[in-house]
Amino acid sequence: LTSDEGNLDPRLNFKELDLCNSVRTSDVVKSIKPDFVINCAAEASEILSPHIRHFSYKNNILSHANLLNACVNHDVEKVIIFSSIGVYGHLRPPFTETMVPQPADPYSVGKLMVEKDTEAVYNYFGLKYSIVRPFNLFCKYQQYNNRYRNFLAIAIRKVLLGEPITIFGDGNQKRAFSSCECLNLPIEQLLYDRNGHVFNIGSSKPIRILDAAELIQKVGKQLGYDSDIVHLDERKEVKLAWSSTEKAEQML
Q1: CB pairs under 8 A, 24+ apart, for 147-152?
Q2: How far apart are CA 148 and CA 163, in angstroms?
Q3: Residue 54 and residue 50: Cα distance in Å, rounded?
Q4: Among 16, 48, 136, 225, which lies 20 to 30 A Cα-Cα from 34?
Q5: Residue 217 and residue 223: Cα distance in Å, rounded?
């Protein structure tokens, strides 16, 4: 569910749904009878997840299990699963799909569980699947009101409110930020091809968090918003996180 339903394309048959409700989830899939299901739903906050462990697992694992059950019971042809590069944890980037995942927080543990459970459902019931591991997605219509999710959105919101952009530590953490648009064509291909594959999809060019903050600060000043950059105490997090997209480039 987006933060603003007004952002939804009017051609969509939109139904608000709590995937943790197994009966309601089954009823919706049964009524729509989709050929394909693309599951982007998540409580997506790596840094907050150690403090909301039960909530994170419930909304990321149980909800997905309910959706998989509904897909099996109502003859969905294929599911495409949104995982995360968080499953790589503290491994050395650029991450590749051949690396053995080492998730470092409950959110990422949950995402790896979702991947493995989807594979198990295929082995038991034959439900076809593909898995994408996107990273640091942004777009015009992203959520700007979540205090714990998406550095770019958080920084933009703070600039618009006249508040300082906060950085934890020295800002030398590196991320590769990816426009949502880069997912469209690969996802469309995956509907009909590459069953059982895992793909990193997104930008392979990392940028320092400090550089990203300074860019947002610069654009804000050009538009009449003045905001400082403030450094807070370092926190426990993966410092370097970006992926190789070579497999997706070759196969998609």
Answers
A1: 148/45, 148/47, 148/48, 149/44, 149/45, 151/175, 151/209, 151/212, 152/177, 152/212, 152/216
A2: 16
A3: 9
A4: 136
A5: 10
| Predicted confidence (pLDDT) at residue 146 exceeds the cutoff of 90 | no
How much of the chain is helix, strand and coil, in % rounded to 5?
A: 40, 15, 45
Total residue length of the chain: 252
Residue 171 neighbours by CB under 8 Å, 6+ apart? 208, 209, 210, 211, 213, 231
pTM over 0.85? The answer is: yes
Segment 67-102, tens digit of pLDDT = 999 999 999 999 999 999 999 999 999 999 999 999
Instruction: Name the token pair of 136.
Output: 């640091």
Q: At residue 83, what are phi and psi to the nearest 5 degrees?
A: -100, -140
- CA geometry: angle at 125 spanning 122 and 128, to 5°? 40
Dihedral sign of CA atoms 159, 164, 165, 171 in order:
positive
Smallest CA-to-CA distance from 244 within 88, 93, 100 is with: 93
